[in-house]
C-alpha cells in the first residue's frame, strides 16, 4: 500500500482528477486552434477563411487562459488545502457543486464561441479573450462566464470552510504554507473579479440582450483591466505555490524560507489589482497621472517576483548541495535534470526570468508606446502564462496524475522529451515574436503578409521571423501530442502500489520564524481594498463623468461600420474614380452620422 494522495483522500482525488482532465481537454482544444493560427498568420499553411481568424483566436485564448489554467489550479488548490491541513473537504457534494458550475459555464461559453464557425447558427462570440466593448458576444457567452466565475467563488468558499474548521481545532497553529497561499490568492481573486462581474452583469450582458442600447466602451475596458491584470496572477500564483512548496522537494532539498514566501503572497494580494491601467497606457480618456500611479504600483509589484526568484533559486541550490553539488555554479550539474517534473518546472522558471524582463518593458509608460498591440506582447504572454504557468502545470502533472489515479506514469522519457520540446518551441516562438513586435508587426491580425516590397536580408526579415514563429508553433504542437499520449497512457494503466508519497517540501526557515502579523488575512484584505479604491475611484468617476454610465449616446461601432460599408459600396459600384468624391461625402456626413 502506498502513501499517495488517492489512498488518503479517495473522494477528493476524484474531484482533483476531474478538474485536471477538464483542463487537459481545454488544453487540447486550445492547442488545435493555436497551431491553426500560427500557420495562418505566418502564411505557411492556410485552410480557414481569414474572417474566421478571430473565432479561432478567441477559442485559443479562452480555452487556454481561462479554462485550462483555472480548471488546473482549482485542482491544485483542492490538493494543497486538503494535504496541508491534513483533512478532507467539509462536504463533498458542495465541492462537486462548484465543479459542476464551472463545467456548465465552460460548455455554454465554448458553444457560443464555436458556433461562430457555423454560419447557419445565429450565435457567435468572436470577442477575443479580453471581450470588452465595442465587440459584442451572444448572451450565452457572458452567461457561461458568469457561471464559471461563480463556480470559482464557491470553490474559494469551500477552501475557506476547510480552513475555518481546521482553525477551530488548531487555534494557535500557523496556517500551513500551501493553505496560506491558496487563501491569499483567493482573496485577491474575489477583489479582482468584482471588476469583471460589474462589467458583465451591469453592462455587457444587458447590452447583448438588448435591454440597454449602448455602453461606455472605455468604462467596460477599464473594468475589464481591473480584473485583467490580477487574473494573470491568478494563473501565476498557483505556479509559484508549486515552485515554493514542491520544486525544492523535487530538487532534493528544502524550501529556503517560509516567511519570505508568505511576504511574497501578501504583496501579491496587496498590489495585483491597483495596476490594471498599465494595459491602458494608450487609451485616450484616462489622465496621464492615473497611468503614472499604475506604473509606479506595477514597479512595486515586481518585488514579490524578485523575492520568488531569490527564494526558489536558493532552495534549488540547497537541493543540489544535498545531492553533492559544489562550486559557485557547478552545483547546477547536480540537479535531477532527467526527472521530467523537475526539469519542466525549472525550465519554466528560466523562461519566466526572460518574461519578467519583457514585462518590465511593457510596464514603462513611454516604452509601452513602442510595443503596445504588437507581437511583442504576444511573445511576453507566451513566456508568462504559456510557459511559466503552462509548462509548470504540464510538468507537475507527471507527479499529480499518478497521485490522483493511483497509476504509475506511462513513460518518463517521453515526458522528459515533452517538456524540453516545449522549452525549445517557446524559445523559438517567443524570441521571434518579441523581435517582430519591435519592428512593428501587429498582434491580432490575420493578414500581416508584408509582401510587395523588397527587403533582402538573411537575418531579421519578416520571412525569417515568421519561419521561427511557425517552427516554434509546430514544436509546441508535437509537445502537446506527447503530453496527451502520456496522460492517456497513464489513465489506462493499472493500479500500482509503487507510487511516491504525497507531501510537500519542508522549510529551512519555517513558519515559526514568520511574524504572526503575516497570517492576519483581515488586515491584508482591508489594505488591499483601500489601495484599489485609491487607484480606481477617481479614474472611474472621470470616465463616467465624461462618457456617461451607458455611453455618450453615440453608437461608435455601428457608426464607423456604416461609413466603411458606404465606402466599400462606393468603390465596388462606382469604381475608384468615384472614391474621392465618396470619401469627401463620407467625411462631410460622418459628423452627422456620429451625432
Ligand atoms: Fe504581463 C500584458 C506587465 C507578468 C500575462 N501580460 C500581458 C498580457 C498577458 C500577460 C496575457 O505593464 C496581454 C494582455 C492582452 O491581451 O492585452 N506582466 C507585466 C509585469 C509583470 C508581468 C510587470 N504577465 C505577467 C504574468 C502573466 C502575464 C506573470 C501571466 C501569467 N504585461 C505587463 C504589461 C502589459 C502586459 C504592462 C500590457 C502590455 C500592452 O501594452 O498591452 C511582472 O509580474 C513580471 C515579474 C517577473 C519577474 C521575473 C522573476 C523571475 C523568476 C524566475 C526564477 C527562476 C527559477 C528557475 C525558478 C521579475 C521568478 C530556477 C532554475 C534553475 C535551474 C536555477
Ligand atoms: Cu498586467
TrEMBL record:
Predominant subcellular localization, coarse grouping: membrane
InterPro entries named among the record's database cross-references: Ba3-like_Oxidase_I, Cyt_c_oxase-like_su1_dom, Cyt_c_oxase-like_su1_sf, Cyt_C_Oxase_1, Cyt_c_Oxase_su1_BS
An example molecular function term from Gene Ontology annotations: heme binding
Subcellular localization(s) per the UniProt record: Membrane
GO CC annotation: membrane
CDD domains, alphabetized: ba3-like_Oxidase_I (cd01660)
Residue ranges of domain Cytochrome oxidase subunit I profile in the record: 20-485
GO biological process: aerobic respiration
Keyword GTP-binding: no
Family label: Belongs to the heme-copper respiratory oxidase family.
Protein name: Cytochrome c oxidase subunit 1
